[in-house]
Amino acid sequence: MSKHDDQFLDELKELKMNKSISPEKKDEMRLNIAKFAKKKKAQRKRKQQFIWASTAAAVVLFGVIVMSIMNQQTETVDDPNPTPADEQPVQGEDPENDPVEDPENNSEEQPEFNVEVEGPFDETIMLEGMEEPTQVMEFLITPHQISYQMDQFLGNYDINENKITHTTDTGFATVIVEVINDTQLEEFAEGLEGDQTPVDPNKNPFEGIQSHQSGEQVTGYYAYQVNDDVLYVQYEYGIEGGDGVGPRLELFIESISKME
């Protein structure tokens, strides 16, 4: 208790005990009592505010400590053996510096379709029952070890992906040679139209099927099983003036062979 408090209590006792105190003295003592009461109220308020502030600070500190502990536990559970920062892989690279495999493309890589062209070479064909000299170009499909000859009558050619398109100068006749990778002939033939018959085994060493339709436009196809692939040949030419196409197409079919 402070010295001021002791003085206030003495005045209070004097006020109770001495009834002959002058009115002026009583007013002074009442004023002191009122000031004392106000002072005590202010002291209690400051004390309560201090207590609440201390309590709030303790709660906040406790919350920070708890959250820190929980975060450390979460990191431990997520990565029990974290990789040091200097060993973390760079984004977009495989940790072992190997190319990342595409899960949707895990089959063997297909060989590149490469065609070599040689010639011209002299050849003879039968036209209207007579032998006629002609020239041919030889096409070598190296990844599949297939070769064939095409008459210079169909001397224009275009190579696009797995397909070689042969045409005449006027576009009168067209022969398309295509390799279908990793395909069985029986399954491939199910998707083809037209009546199908076996090919003549004496014309080339491959087993296959053929189809031929005549009209204003003569159309047809051959399909051969060559190892694990299908060699698919389509042809089309006009019926009028097409007498010279048949023998040249026959020469092409008979020239299809397996490269040594």
Write the layout of secondary structure elements.
Blueprint: H1 3-17, H2 23-78, E1 115-127, E2 130-141, E3 146-151, E4 156-160, E5 163-167, E6 173-180, H3 185-189, E7 197-198, E8 208-213, E9 217-226, E10 229-238, H4 245-255, E11 257-258
Antiparallel strand pairs: 1-2, 2-3, 3-11, 4-5, 5-6, 6-10, 7-8, 8-9, 9-10
Protein name: DUF4367 domain-containing protein
Transmembrane segments: 50-70
Keywords: Membrane, Transmembrane, Transmembrane helix
Number of strands: 11
Broad CATH class of the largest domain: Alpha Beta
**Beginning-to-end CA distance, first to last residue:** 119 Å
CATH architecture of the largest domain: 3-Layer(aba) Sandwich
What characteristic shape results from the CA principal axes? rod-shaped
Q: Structural class, from secondary structure content?
A: alpha+beta
| CATH topology (fold) name of the largest domain | Protein Transport Mog1p, Chain A
Low-confidence stretches: 103-107
List the domain count as a whole number: 2
User: How many separate helices?
Assistant: 4
Mean pLDDT across the residues is 79
